Amino acid sequence: MMLQWISGIVVVIIAVVALIDLVPKGLDWVNRIHIGRYQDKQIWNQSITSIGIKWLSRTPKIKVTDQTRLIAIDMMQGNYTRTSIQHWQEAALLLGLAEYVKRNDAPADTTKKIKDFLASKMDAEGNWLKKPEHVDTAILAYAIMKLDFIDVDRYRGALDATWELIRAHIGQEGSVLYRTFMGKYRYVDTIGFICPFLVAYGIRYGKEECVELAVRQIKQYEQYGMLEGHHIPSHAYQVDSKMPLGLYGWGRGLGWFAIGLIDAWNELPEGHERKPLLEASIIQFAKSAVVFQQKQGNWNWTVTREESIPDSSTTATLGWFMLNASQIPAISEMCKASANQAIQYLMKATRRSGAVDFSQGDTKDIGVYSMLFNVLPFTQGFCIRLMNVQVHSKVG
Which GO terms describe its biological process (predicted)? Predict the structure, then answer.
């Protein structure tokens, strides 16, 4: 009797573990039925924005590993998700919704949900409820600064703390570390994380050293982390040897560089002495990146290989870059066409629910990339951001 009882428990456990593995696969299959049916940009914009609003208060968890079997073990060991990943996911959603609210007659419920989100991150004095440890937080701080219906100065404590965190990560050669325990490397991700915040914060509060740090981060990466002759970034480089590390042409790496560069440039006022310097970088990078855009409008997860899988996160971030770069007369028409092609692809990659699909999962290490492609709040946010600016700027 005891043996039968134990056998029954084992069977139940096996069934539960199997279900945990099978349910996500089944849901993906169901949710991808009739994918890519959007034809009207306005309807698509409404759909992706409604999902973004929903996800802001409950951001979907992004897997740390690529494991698709026995994922219950990852859950029990705490390896299924990681909190720090969520900062850039939430930031992208907030950046997208900031553009939506700015450019539309947004319902009061939307602004309330954004304020509720802020209340979940800040105390009554405008400080972070949970002290941030990683520079990833800076992109979330930047997103908060882009909300023009709130008093940004109310959160000055959190913004100051973010600057102090970045300053604590400055290495001996003057650029910012991705992590304090990885001091000998510089990552392309860091450009997207910190540079827009540094410029926005520096301009708003008269801290020119912040602007200079952002420009230095970008220019040093151009000097040591770019493929000569093609001007696309490696994943990272080693500080002492200046040796490039990881993959040249990692799609989201191009995206991180692109959003860091274009948003930093956008935040500089006309007439600022550093604006022409960054504009020259934008022109060079735009001409390089557009070469790798595929016929369907997408960029692949490895942009240099047309056989590799299309990546919606790369396409959304580079689409955003191209749209904003089209303000520069020398590359305006090229960038408008590129941005419009990116939008056409992203519409085809959108589930009927409005969730944009086929984004590469979380990167494991330098040169170790996810082979899972699914929904990603980061991509959703940049699609919302891209679409609301595109519609109201009449680009294309």
Answer: carbohydrate metabolic process
The 3-state secondary structure of 288-331 reads HHHHHCCCCCCCECECCCCCCCECHHHHHHHHHHHHHHCCCHHH
pLDDT of 193 reads: 98
In the block, tokens 């560069």 appear at 261
Q: What is the pLDDT, as a whole number, of residue 208? A: 98
Inter-residue contact 172 to 181 (CB < 8 Å): no
Q: Where are the beta strands (DSSP E) in the chain?
A: 185-187, 236-238, 244-245, 359-360, 373-374
201-250 tens-digit pLDDT: 999 999 999 999 999 999 999 999 999 999 999 999 999 999 999 999 99
Q: Which residue has the tokens 């392309």?
A: 188
pLDDT of residue 34: 85
Quote the pLDDT of residue 274.
98
Q: What is the reported pLDDT for 69?
A: 47
| 139, burial (CB in 10 Å: exposed 0-12, middle 13-18, buried 19+) | buried
The domain spans of the chain are 32-393
Q: Which residues contact 223 (CB under 8 A, 6 or more apart)?
A: none
Torsional class of 237: left (φ above 0), alpha (ψ -120 to 50), beta (otherwise): beta
Per CATH, the number for 32-393 is 1.50.10.10
Overall residue count recorded for the chain in this entry: 396
CA dihedral 219, 339, 35, 255 (to 10 degrees): 0
Q: Which residue type is seen at 131?
A: K
- Is residue 301 within 8 A of residue 314, CB to CB? The reply is yes
Q: What is the pLDDT of residue 9?
A: 66
The structure's pTM equals 0.90
**DSSP3 helix / strand / coil % (the chain, rounded to 5):** 60, 5, 35
pLDDT at position 151 is 97
| Residue 143 CB contacts under 8 Å (≥ 6 apart), including other chains | 90, 91, 92, 94, 95, 98
Tokens, residue 142: 């930047």
